[in-house]
Amino acid sequence: METTEPEVKEQALPEEPAMVLSQEAQYYLQQIGKWASFLGIVGFVFCGLFFIMAIFIGSIFAMMSKISPMYAQNPAASAMGPMLSVIYIVFDAIYFILVLYLYQFAVRIKRGIAFVDNAMVTSAFSKLKSFFKAWGIITIVLLSFYALIFVIVAIVGVAASAMH
């Protein structure tokens, strides 16, 4: 005789309740999407202008080294133009990444709310998280830089006062 055990059906774990957004919250997210889109487009325009300025700042310093004898004699002054151009382009690239995250958030949140697409809304918030994470990293770097400058100035100040 065979004994058979009764089949045990696996019970599905209860899912977490889905967050449901009120009409008012959806309206606010749509408005946020519109403003984020506006700021993203304006940011792209400024990125383009900043890039053009980076190109011209290098040209201006190159022309100054040819025109002014003071700049022509100083090799550091003639290298200032290309160096400033590279710095401006690096800052522009960082700014572009931030603006891109913001614009991607705007597009996805508007589409997600309009089509009631949870995956799209989640993707939008992922881009918003990336935007704030990047800004947070930049803030930490700047605060560290300011602290370093403060320490250097304090050391130089103490050293200068000790000389008298």
Note down, in words, how this protein is organized.
The protein has a domain at 23-132. Helix 1 (23-67) runs antiparallel to helix 3 and helix 3 (75-114) packs antiparallel against helix 4 (118-163). The chain has four helices and no strands. It is elongated. The model has no long low-confidence stretch (mean pLDDT 89). Helices cover 83% and strands 0% of the residues. The chain has helices at 23-67, 69-73, 75-114, 118-163. With 164 residues, it is mainly α.
Please describe the structure with a list of short key phrases separated by commas or semicolons.
164 residues; mainly alpha
Question: How do the helices and strands line up, and which of them pair or pack?
Answer:
Blueprint: H1 23-67, H2 69-73, H3 75-114, H4 118-163
Transmembrane segments: 38-63, 83-103, 134-160
Keywords: Membrane, Transmembrane, Transmembrane helix
| Contiguous uncertain segments of 5+ residues | none
Instruction: Note the total helix count.
Output: 4
What structural category characterises the helix and strand content? mainly alpha
* Proportion of beta-strand residues: under 5%
Identify the overall geometry: elongated
Order of helices and strands: HHHH
Rg, Cα atoms, Å: 28 Å
Count all strands and give the number: 0
Query: Major sheet: size, sense and barrel closure?
Result: none
What would the average pLDDT be, to the nearest integer?
A: 89
Percent of residues in helices comes to over 70%
C-alpha end-to-end distance: 106 Å
Transmembrane segments: 38-63, 83-103, 134-160
Keywords: Membrane, Transmembrane, Transmembrane helix
